[in-house]
Predict the structure of Aspartyl/glutamyl-tRNA(Asn/Gln) amidotransferase subunit C.
Amino acid sequence: MSTDLATLRKLAHLARLEFDENKEQQMLGDLNKILDWVDQLRQLDTSNVEPLVHLSHEINVLRPDEAHNTVSHQDGLRNAPRKDSDYFRVPKVLE
């Protein structure tokens, strides 16, 4: 399987790429190598290969993700540079 220069130029236009003539020929060669490699993969017999569901057989050893407050409201406001009763004060961003 290979492609021609017109197809490469159309793909480059769709991808908003620009090549000079040297790079265009190099890109065409590289694209044809990739397409040949994909064609070789397509010819492999994978009828007896199980689908890959997970990359490894490792079990998640992390703790369960449970929401809970670790910092109280007062402790959070204690380190605020500016506060107004129960709220953080921040500089005005929009006019």
In short: The mean pLDDT is 87. The radius of gyration is 29 Å. The chain is about 40% helix and 5% strand. Strands lie at 83-84, 87-88.
